[in-house]
Every structure is written in C-alpha cells, then in structure tokens.
Amino acid sequence: MSDLSVLYDAPGPRAKTRNILYTVLFVVVMALVVWWVLAIMADKGQLAGEKWLPFVEDSRVWTTFILPGLLNTLKAAALAILIALPFGVLLGVGRLSDHRWVRAPAGAVVEFFRAIPVLLLMLFANQAYAQFSDIDPETRPLFAVVTGLVLYNASVIAEVVRAGVLSLPYGQTDAAKAIGMRKGQTMSYVLLPQAVTVMLPALVSQLVVIVKDTALGGAMLGFPELLSRVQSITANYGANTIAAFTVVALIFVLVNFALTSVAHRLESRARRSRKGTGAVIGEDPGSDVAVPVIPEQPTGDGAAVKKGAD
Amino acid sequence: MFDFLDLERYDLLGAFWVTVQLTVYSAIGSLIWGTVLAAMRVSPVPLMRAFGTAYVNIMRNTPLTVIIVATSLGLWQTLGVTLAGGTFDDIGFRLAVLGFVAYTATFVCESIRSGINTVPVGQAEAARALGLSFTQVLRLIVLPQAFRAVVAPLANVLIALTKNTTVAATIGVSEAALLMKEMVENESQAIFLVFAVFAFGFILLTLPTGLLLGWVSKRVAVKR
Amino acid sequence: MKLRKSGVAAASAVVLALTATACGGGSDSGKNDDKITIGIKFDQPGLGLKTPDGDYTGFDVDVATYVAKELGHDAKDIEWKEAPSAERENLISRGDVDFIVASYSITDERKQKVSFAGPYFLAHQDLLVRADEKGITKAEDLNSRKLCSVTGSTSAQNIKNELAPKAQLQQVGGYSQCLTGLENKAVDALTTDDTILAGYAAQPQHEGKFKLAGLSLSDENYGIGLKKGDTELQGKINKALEKMVEDGAWDKAVKDNFGPANYKNESAPKITETS
C-alpha cells in the first residue's frame, strides 16, 4: 500500500468546507497558545533584551562558543558515520552467514552494544584510551565520543543491513546461484546493491541520531560540542538559559533537516535509477525491517501522501 | 573491590525501578500518541497531515536533552505547568514522561506509517468498497495488520527508549543515571566499576526485552 | 555496479578515518618544559570562566596563575584545560594536567586517588535567594521551601540526606537553569558553594536581583589537586599559596572576583595538606 490515498475517498464539497473550518480553528487556537506563552514569558522577564540580544549583537557568542561547538559536533558525527558504516555492513553480513562461528559472534556483538546506553560506551572508551593508549589528551574526548557512537551505531546499521537483505525476494539469491555465483559474489553483486535502496531511509535517520548523540559527550567527558556550549553561554550572559537552549535547538533542527533533505534527494535518485530492475521492496512484512521504508519526506507543501515509490 | 557499592547508601534497585517506571509509562504514552500521529499523517484532512509532518520533523531533529530540559525549564519553571502539581519529584517524573512521549512518539509514528505501507492496497480498497469510513478503514482493517508487521521496529524503539530514560537525570528524576552521577561524585576512586555496574543493569533490562519482542514479532507476523 | 561505488566510498572512509587517527595521535608528544597545563572550570563565573574573548577569569584562575608564576611559568605559558567534575581525578592520574584548581573540595575518597595541596580557600554551602527574600535565616527554614541544585552534586546530596530532607529539591543540569527558575519564582533558592553563588550574584546582569542568604551549611576546603604522592610539587604549591596570602595577592583576588556580590569570605585557611 504505497499510495495512502486509497484509505479514503476524494473529498467532496462538504468535506472541503469542513477542512477549511478546521484549518481556521486550528490557526486561531495556535495563535492563542503562542500569545499565552509569550505573555507569561514577558511577564517573568524572560523576553528581556539582555537575554536574547547577545545572539544578534555580540558576534563573539558565535565565534567563541557556538561555531566551534557546531564544528566539533559535525566532526564527531562525520567520523562516526564513516567508520560505523563499513563495520555495520560487515557485522550485518556476518549475521547472515551460513557459518555458525561467524553468525554467533556477530550476533553477540550487535546485541551487546545495542543494549548499553551510548554515554556509558563513551565513558568506557575514554577510560580505555587513557589507560592503554597514548592519544593526546586534547583529542581523547573526540576519540571517546566517536568510539562510543561507532560501537552503538555499527550494531544498529548491522540490523538495518540484515533487514534490508532479508527483505529481498528469494528469487534473487536463486537466480544468482543458477548462474553459478559463489556466496560472496551473490552478497556483494546481487543482494547488497539492491538492499542499499531499502536501507537508505533508515541510514538517514541513523545519521540524525548520531548528530544528536554527540551531545552526550559534552557534560561528562568535556567534549566541547554544541549543546554543552549552552553552559558556557549562560554563564557569561546572565543565565539566559531559555534563549541559549532555543538558539542551539534551532541550529540542531536546521542541520538535521538539511541532512535529511540531502539524503532524501539521493534516495529518490537511487530509486529512479533502479526503476528497471523490478525488485520488490518493502513488500515482505515477515522480516524484521528495522526502520523500514519511510516514504519521501514532504518538504513543506503538506503533501504527506506518498505517491507510488516503486 | 566492590567497597564502593554500599547498597544501604545507594538505592540501586530503587533507581532502576524508577527507570523501569519511566520506560513503561513513556512507552504506553508514545504508542498512543504515535498511533494518533500516524493516523494524522495519512488522514484526509490536509491540516492534520501538515501538523503531523511538521511535528515529526521538528521533534525528531531536536536532541532529546533539549526536549527534556524544555519541559522543565520552559513548561514548568516559566509557564507554571505542573501537570496536577504535587512534590517536585512527582512533577519532574511526569514532565520527563511527557518529554519522552513527545519525542519517542515520532519514531513510533514513522514505524507505524511504514507498517501501513506493508498492508496490500486491496485490503483498503475492499474496505472502502464495503462503505467503511476513513477511521473505520484504519481502525478495523489497516492498523491491526500494520501493527503485526512493526513489532520488531517498535521493539527497537522500546530499547532505545529504555536507554534514553537516562536523560531524565538532567531534570533531576532520581533514576539510574542520577544515582550514577552521585556515585561518580562520591566514589571517584572506583569510577570505572561504577560505570560497569550501571552498564550491566541496562543490559539486564534491554536484552530480554529485545529477545522477547523478537520472538513475538515472528509469531504475529502476517504471512503473505 | 552500484556496489563497486559504495565499496570505494567505504574504503575511502576507512582511509580517511585512519589518517585522522594518525594526525591526532602523533601531535606534539614531546612536552615543552616552559608549558604548564592546569585544569579549571570553564563555566563558573567568579571561579573559572571562559569569556567570549577566549580569556579566562575567576578566583581559581587567579590562584592558578599565581602558583604557576611561583613555579616558574609565565601566564602566557599556561594551557588551560576544562576539568568537568566527573573527570577531575582521571585528568590528574593520567597526567593530562599538571594540577587542578577547580572548586575541588578535599575529601578522603578523593585522596585515595589524588593528592591535594592547600587548602587555598574555605567555602561553605550556602543559598542564593531573590533580593526581597526574608524568610530564610537558618537551615530548618528550608524544609518548607523549594530548592534547586545541580544533579548529583555534593550540595544536592547534603540537602536530601541531612540538612533539609523535607525540602523540595529540583535537580538540573547547570546552575544557570536554577537561576532561571529563581527569577521566575518557580524555586525559592539555589544551593551550592557560596563561591559559585557569589560569582553569579556578582555578574552585571544580576545586579540587585539576588543575594546570598549567608548560612554556612557545610565546610568545603578547596585544594589544588595533583598527582598522588607528588610531595615535591605539593610542597612548592603550598609555599606559593602561603606567599600569595602574605603579599596580599590572595585578598585582591577575592575582592576582584567576589566583591560586587557583597560576599563575606573566610580569611585564608591554614595549609593542612602536607604529607
């Protein structure tokens, strides 16, 4: 069921007027809520200029705190996804292996690292690097954060890969066998390339998770990422916590939104270029598709209904 | 070696019990709100679709810490929303659940939406041919089938939620992560072991959940 | 053919990661003798604060600079390193920093892992209240009040376990968030060491808004944390601290950093940490 408009009939004239009425009502209620919030904030002095103006007037807030923080966040996230991706693919393929001695350890690793909070993985990594390596103390928090993110996300990606491969029809494997491909060839030339398209949405949402999770390294490891800069900003500008959190949250939303938009463009291109192969995607509900086929995100025109993806 | 683990001073079980409670309440709330959001995103009313889309895109892209802090700092400390009042502990707990529901529901919503995608078109067409309305189609035909397809993704969401409850420590809910912070502050000589104890606690909570729900997902899957 | 592309991408990713590792690991391991690395807080006004100019100010910073000078390091040779509370012992025992001056109370648990010099300041747990508050004069008054402190901190634990178990305690991620609650009248007092409170009260944005209640709820002897058993450094730092008090630099540092808050500090404590 890819075209969701099959769930209801096309709206008639009465339904259309009702929709307009709903919209007006909703807008009015929203406006009231916003007015109420702003009124209380103004009453309590939270809208005072000295709290918000530093973000507009004082460029040092950006150059000393926010931009370096954002850079650290992006650096950690980029390293983490680049390293986690190959590991994740290896683990995922490992879990699909015919050999028990490959399958079992791969499965154990995946289950283990998925079960521990990422923050704890980072703390362990930090401790381990300090004791058993001579990484420069300046960069150690970055290494610890990236390691924690890689361990966790590689195991999540492994599950995505496994689900993606399992979602392909068995005919693909059979056909590959029939033309004499070995198991490794079947996986790398037939199954994985097709699974990539199924996996893309899940990989994208994982990327967003990674960007957000870098924030875990701030408070306890002293990794100077974006969210932890709130603490420094509020210490300098008179406890303007609400303003600082709002600005930082907006930056996170914008960065992640940009990431998802780019990724969705890539995804739709990948889908288009594979139109001819006729692979059936997302039609196998039996496999445990981790975060399966997410329809294209509408980019603001409100068209939430996905129009025939494949 | 385990001197630091003074169980009279540190209520380890109690802290993990709060973690479990946070998880259970938030899971129930997210399931309901997530289902409503998913229904909104496929509904015939354009406004609802727009709201659902905007909500999911904003909430999913904001760090959970910011959402949880916003419930405390914004809703409570500034706007005075206490969700039926009570002691600080109660308010903090309920606000944390609210924050987790607001955040986790977006993931539930996206899972269910992809579950709806796995239901064959013919099912909905047949239902409409019988004259069922949109809500009836969704409630009686599509969602029951969709849910059976998304048990595994929802299990992943549940595991993530269990671990995410540690963020509640930032607004002072006395769950496992808060106790860990106290122990880190007091027992700095055994910091590594403190981490290990809490990691083990989370493995005990999440591994069985994952295995059990993995088994359930295979049992209930619709064979097509 | 898709796979070949993604294979290449994956391979280049690994290469990138490896080069990044190589760069990070190899950089200046040979330590310059003039340089000294000191751990401080970056986000506590009055004690250790990174300003928008990239400078560092505060009482801890002044003490650290003085001590470093006595040890033969110019102010410009000091490398400041952020020392989050959870990391302090580790930073020292791993040798990431030469010593730590970061509102670091001397306790027996901590002495199992690190040594201290000093103390250089005697702080007390106290309360920051709104300027018009009159009802808080002793610890018992707190039992009916709403308090705020930082999650898991010693001050928060003191309130919960001993001082005022019946008080409502809101624990948050940072002191600034408590101040917002205090401004909005959602809480009645922020509790932690009086030095930190004085630092916030002394900020220009908070002039006339808050005051210290002046209760001494606990004794916190701030020490300078250093590698366990390094008695030579400990002796040198102790000597430097004594000199700082004698030549009046200590009083000046207190006045500079806490002055505007109308804070009545204790006089300089006697050095006790000699092994």
UniProtKB/TrEMBL annotation, chain A:
> What are the residue boundaries of the ABC transmembrane type-1 domain, all occurrences included?
70-263
Q: Which domain of life is it from?
A: Bacteria
Chain segments carrying region Disordered: 273-310
Recorded hits in InterPro entries, A to Z, give: AA_ABC_transptr_permease_3TM (IPR010065), ArtM/GltK/GlnP/TcyL/YhdX-like (IPR043429), MetI-like (IPR000515), MetI-like_sf (IPR035906)
> Which parts pass through the membrane?
20-42, 62-91, 112-130, 142-168, 189-211, 242-264
Task: Print the keywords alphabetically.
Answer: Cell membrane, Membrane, Transmembrane, Transmembrane helix, Transport
Pfam families cross-referenced by the UniProt entry: BPD_transp_1
Q: Where in the cell is it found?
A: Cell membrane
Q: Which PROSITE patterns does the record match to this protein?
A: ABC_TM1 (PS50928)
Q: How does it sit in the membrane?
A: Multi-pass membrane protein
Q: What is the similarity comment for this entry?
A: Belongs to the binding-protein-dependent transport system permease family.
The record's section on PANTHER family has: AMINO ACID ABC TRANSPORTER PERMEASE, MEMBRANE COMPONENT OF AMINO ACID ABC TRANSPORTER
Protein name from the UniProt record = Amino acid ABC transporter permease
From TrEMBL, chain B:
Source domain of life is Bacteria
Q: Does the keyword Membrane apply?
A: yes
- CDD domains reported in the protein's UniProt record: TM_PBP2 (cd06261)
Native source organism of the sequence: Streptomyces zingiberis
- Tell me what this protein is called: Amino acid ABC transporter permease
In this chain the ABC transmembrane type-1 domain maps to: 16-213
Keywords in UniProt for this one?
Amino-acid transport, Cell membrane, Membrane, Transmembrane, Transmembrane helix, Transport
Membrane topology of the entry: Multi-pass membrane protein
> Which PANTHER family does this chain map to?
AMINO-ACID ABC TRANSPORTER PERMEASE PROTEIN YHDX-RELATED, MEMBRANE COMPONENT OF AMINO ACID ABC TRANSPORTER
Q: Where in the cell is it found?
A: Cell membrane
User: Which Pfam families does the entry mention?
Assistant: BPD_transp_1 (PF00528)
Primary location: membrane
Give the classification, highest ranks. Answer: Bacteria, Bacillati, Actinomycetota, Actinomycetes, Kitasatosporales
Listed transmembrane segments: 12-40, 61-79, 91-109, 190-216
Family named by the database record? Belongs to the binding-protein-dependent transport system permease family. HisMQ subfamily.
TrEMBL record, chain C:
Where is the Solute-binding protein family 3/N-terminal domain positioned along the sequence? 35-261
Q: Which PROSITE patterns match?
A: PROKAR_LIPOPROTEIN, SBP_BACTERIAL_3
- What Gene3D superfamilies does this protein's entry cite? Periplasmic binding protein-like II
Question: Which SUPFAM superfamilies is this protein grouped with?
Answer: Periplasmic binding protein-like II
Q: InterPro entries recorded for this chain? A: Bact_solute-bind_prot3, SBP_3_CS, Solute-binding_3/MltF_N
**What Pfam family is a match for this entry?**
SBP_bac_3
The question of whether Transit peptide is a record keyword is answered with no
Keyword Signal in the entry? The reply is yes
Q: Which residues form the signal peptide?
A: 1-22
Q: Which UniProt keywords apply?
A: Signal, Transport
Which domain of life does the protein's organism represent? Bacteria
Q: Which family does it belong to?
A: Belongs to the bacterial solute-binding protein 3 family.
- Protein known as: Glutamate ABC transporter substrate-binding protein
Q: What broad taxonomic lineage does this protein's source fall under?
A: Bacteria, Bacillati, Actinomycetota, Actinomycetes, Kitasatosporales
